[in-house]
Amino acid sequence: MTAVKSDERLADVGRLRRTLIRPELGAVVGAIIVFAFFAAQSPVFRSPAGIANWLDPAATLGIMAVAIALLMIGGEFDLSAGVLTGTTGLILVTLATEYGVNVWLAMLISLAVALGVGFLNGIVVTRTKLPSFIVTLGSFLMLQGINLGVTKLITGTVQVSGLRTASGFESARVIFAGTIQIGQVHFRVAILWWLAATALATWVLMRTRAGNWIFAAGGNEQAARAVGVPAARTKIALFMTTAFAAWLVGSIMALRYTSVQANIGIGQEFIYIIAAVIGGCLLTGGYGSAIGAAIGAVIFGMADKGIVFLGWDADWFKFFLGAMLLLATLANRLVRRYAEEVKR
Question: Do residues 24 and 291 touch, judged by C-beta distance below 8 A?
């Protein structure tokens, strides 16, 4: 009996549909357009040194955006993520400079504090059923007050500095804030941390049971609980993941600049969310991509430095953020509708 061959056109359509409903598709298209625009206008932008320049802010933003994307897929928000990067940096520098604690031990202590904040955020959200927006807004305000109040109490100013002379600084700086030379260009180590975070988050989402739990908890929490998904534990773990990312970024920035301002990180939480939305995450949860969030961070990095390379007023960057947010939200809505039609 002769086997009937499948219609190749149908296979192609299937692959096309799978591509079109990928959450990161809009971010990929946007990144190509933004790169092409700035590269055409500025030779420096497309040079190896220029690429290293705009990958640097994309890396630190990307680490947080990937963690926030996981949390948003799980159906929650964290408005304390930005200020928490400042909290962890302040703890690190204060312990190392004011109390003589080794930098590595100070980093472990700041990590424990960050994970504690993430755990408390998760516990309050899951136990009280309050919106995570409200809970983490409260955390944001409390951390902001603690950062300013404690820093002034200890140092008399709103800044802590002098980390360069602390014990263990050099070894920690190499790992978290050093550079890698490729040819004649120096790339920040933070880029490797960003790529590792993106790869790990993508593997968790696409290849593990925990990834299924994240999508289920964000898509329909009650239905997820009915089929045995530990939604509460999943969400607590996601808040702690965001806190870990905040610790990593806070440590990178503290070791890079050797000083920390008490108000650092304030306002960045919205940038993280915007990057995740541009990357395909829905505000309603249950849909998104870690790779998309990373690409969203690349778009911001390119725009941030590209505007400078072209000599434009930096205020145009804010206009760019707003435009990209609106376009990404509309694109995500269209993709979501198409995905629902494909499933029928």
Answer: yes
